[in-house]
Design a protein that fits this description.
Blueprint (H helix, E strand, L loop, with lengths): L13 H11 L4 E3 L4 H12 L5 E5 L10 H14 L6 E8 L7 H18 L3 E6 L2 H11 L6 E3 L6 H8 L4 E5 L10 H8 L5 E3 L21 H12 L3 H15 L4
Parallel strand pairs: 1-2, 2-3, 3-4, 4-5, 5-6, 6-7
């Protein structure tokens, strides 16, 4: 449900990456944008493989700068003109990990895009680092009017998981971090999160799972996340595949 397949990291062998994904059993890949230019690029790229690639558009919090209003204007126009192709608003959210220089602008940009999600009834793909309180506060104001979405790259503890699960139309995106040696997710998730509230992701080309850690991540590596999730929940890989796919269909009605 989350792969930056439009990135330059895949320019040399994108077709081969797609072939490996299909061979592994990945039937669809959702691609999030990070700004106006990637939003445009992703919509065009997904149009070439409408059976496999599905676009999300939005302004990533780390891309919020002085020109954020102009960026949002371009993205909003794209949403209006290509709305039938777009499956979600994303990747959007808040990120105070490195800097709070544009903290207020991030809040305004995020809330604006949450309002788009209400208006279009598209799900949200939410990125959040070191800003869960602020993010939750905004989602609470719109929760009853939102169709749902994904809290991308969840790596938190039991309390943080419970706080996010209060939004019953939202689910947690789980990727390669689950497989890391020091990750506490294999213990946290089965205690707190029903399997029906999880979707699989890679965030490729970033955060490749064990045993591929250190390499460029790609959609076919989803299999390693699925295997570790099955171990953590004590169920078969087939059950994880079935339930996470059912959840994707529930949250992303346009794919």
């Amino acid at each position: 449900t989350h792969c930056h397949l439009d990135g330059e990291e895949f320019d040399i062998d994108r077709d081969e990456v797609i072939s490996r994904a299909l061979t592994t059993g990945v039937s669809k890949v959702f691609i999030p944008a990070i700004d106006a230019s990637t939003s445009q690029r992703i919509v065009s790229m997904c149009a070439s493989r409408p059976d496999f690639l599905f676009p999300m558009i939005g302004l990533h919090p780390e891309e919020v700068r002085d020109d954020w209003r102009e960026q949002l204007s371009v993205i909003r126009q794209l949403l209006s003109s290509r709305s039938s192709q777009i499956i979600a608003i994303g990747e959007v959210g808040l990120d105070y990990y490195c800097s709070r220089e544009f903290a207020q602008q991030q809040l305004e940009a995020f809330e604006c895009q949450v309002q788009w999600a209400v208006e279009t009834q598209l799900p949200l793909m939410i990125h959040c680092r070191k800003a869960q309180n602020e993010m939750v506060s905004i989602i609470k104001r719109y929760a009853s009017r939102l169709s749902g979405g994904v809290f991308h790259c969840f790596t938190g503890n039991e309390q943080e998981a419970k706080e996010l699960l209060q939004f019953d139309r939202f689910v947690l995106g789980i990727g390669g971090v689950l497989t890391f040696k020091k990750s506490h997710l294999p213990e946290v998730l089965p205690k707190t999160v029903p399997l029906s509230r999880i979707v699989l992701e890679t965030d490729a080309p970033y955060m490749a799972p064990v045993p591929m850690r250190g390499k460029r991540n790609e959609p076919s590596f989803t299999l390693h996340v699925l295997k570790r999730l099955a171990e953590a929940y004590g169920v078969s890989e087939a059950e994880v595949a079935m339930k996470t796919t059912e959840t994707v269909s529930r949250v992303f009605s346009r794919q």
